[in-house]
Amino acid sequence: MTAPTLNKINADLAKYGVEMVRGNGYFYFAGLDAAGQRVANHIDSVFTEQLRSMSLEEWIRYCAEYIADYNEGIV
What we know:
Blueprint: H1 6-13, E1 18-22, E2 27-31, H2 34-40, H3 56-71
Antiparallel strand pairs: 1-2
Helix pairs in contact: 1-3
């Protein structure tokens, strides 16, 4: 498992027009453009102070599942 960093996570999310942003005790998702913001609005925030609460792969999978649901019209 690879250690997560915001740069690594955001490098993967950029293809969806989304970035992960650190809040105070949580991480949330924001759009890089209008289309990305629509996607980001459907990804639940993660309430943790540490990126290490999940591996890089788990962060990517967490986001990918929400994005897949959004693309399929489930959310």
